[in-house]
Amino acid sequence: MPPADLQPSFHVCIIGGGVVGLAGGILLRQQGFKVTVLERDLTLHTVRIQLHPNAVRVLKEIGVFEKMMSKSIIPVSIILKAYNTGQVLHQQFLEGPAKKYNNCPLLTLHRADLRQVLYDEAITQGVTIRHGIKIDASGVDLKGGTLTTDTSEIISADLFIGADGGESVIRTGLLGYKPKAIPHGKIVHRILIQEADIIARPHLKYLVEEPNIIVWLGPECEAVTYGLDGVFNIAFTWPYSTDPKDIFFGAQPVDLDEFRANLTDWEPDLREILSLGKDCLRWEFFEPITDDDHVPWVDDTGKFCIVGDAAHRGLPYLGQGAAAGIESVSTLAQLLGKATNQDQVRESLGIYQRLRKERTGHVIRATLKTGEIWQMADGPLKDERDRCFLQETPTVGYPNPLADPFFQEWLWGFDATKTANEAWEAYQIARFQK
Ligand SMILES: Cc1cc2nc3c(=O)[nH]c(=O)nc-3n(C[C@H](O)[C@H](O)[C@H](O)COP(=O)(O)OP(=O)(O)OC[C@H]3O[C@@H](n4cnc5c(N)ncnc54)[C@H](O)[C@@H]3O)c2cc1C
């Protein structure tokens, strides 16, 4: 436990009650801080996500592992297939890695279920959560060290943490301008199919009877599927305009017949499953954020900082967005827990920023690379990729980075507590040497 002179009276206010904000609330309470979470929405949205072992480890440490497992499915493997023939290019079994990484399996679950588990735990641990509280960028007062809500309430705290997602107003406050959303040139289409309808066709049953994450690798596109709660979730990443006038935010309905018409050369089994779909929604992807030293995640006085998508929004090709955010907020909480005065709070924020910019930058770049490799256009490069899949043993540079043992260990074996302890120790040594 940290010294009693700072933490109990030190009030941390987290803006955003997403997965990262709520996990942060619990982690900071566990370090002894007084914590309030401000969330603009009144309800939780249902999106299905994969949660990788590096995030599961943190949630195990928080104490919500059992509850989370009761809402999750543990996929047997990740299967990569050719989009047109359906040939299995690579199958990565997940039981071995789960054992290797602290008995932390890769899970699939509803983001809303995860948020609910975290919400309940946060309340139990004494976090104050206020719903329906929205902060606008104009309400962020860095100099005065306060926030003003959209209903003109002034909020004071010792530290404000922006966990308010990819459109973060705290990020805007730190930068002094609203960053422009730059189209990535891809969108995702999501189609949900009842598994009972698939099972009713015996020749398709094989796709759902065992829980697997299946990825069909297509030219400039990919389709990721997995089942959860009797529903088969299909997420198609698809090319889209980069013209700023075509930008859209949030979910848009799509004419499913029109979309299906693009898929005439895709594996017939996948097309047949898609024929069972009734509706489709799409979301636009934006260029991920990899900040250099000049972009602040922390203000000069040590009163504001950002975490999760607010700091390092990526793309979903490696299933790492929420995981990276959970890692970040765990690192942040561990470091803040070591501070015994305001100067050390500022120092710990600086260490957090340095550690997390470096690691999340690597994760984001690896994600982009994975997208390029998995979504290769037909041609000799793609043929060589497929030859590697089929003939090579996974090692550095293998086209499924999650199966490359070195990258996998770096990604899934991350330990935020150890990293924070080592960084703090190095800081203390440097301080005493001065
Ligand atoms: C298609 C897709 C698939 C994905 N799949 C995966 C996956 O499989 N695995 C994975 O790990 N990640 C995945 N991600 C990424 C993951 O969803 C995000 O990285 C993660 O949700 C970020 O969490 P967060 O808490 O930082 O932000 P958010 O989830 O965006 O939460 C921010 C919260 O802040 C609130 N808020 C925002 N602005 C304000 C304001 N001004 N005032 C008050 N409250 C505010 C919001 O209402 C929200 O509750 C995927 C993303 C996409 C788009």
TrEMBL record:
It comes from the Eukaryota. GO terms for molecular function: FAD binding; monooxygenase activity. Pathway: Secondary metabolite biosynthesis. Pfam families: FAD_binding_3. SUPFAM superfamilies: FAD/NAD(P)-binding domain. Keywords: FAD, Flavoprotein, Monooxygenase, Oxidoreductase. Residues 11-173, 301-365 form the FAD-binding domain. Gene3D superfamilies: FAD/NAD(P)-binding domain (3.50.50.60). The keyword Oxidoreductase applies. Belongs to the paxM FAD-dependent monooxygenase family. This is FAD-binding domain-containing protein. It comes from Xylaria arbuscula.
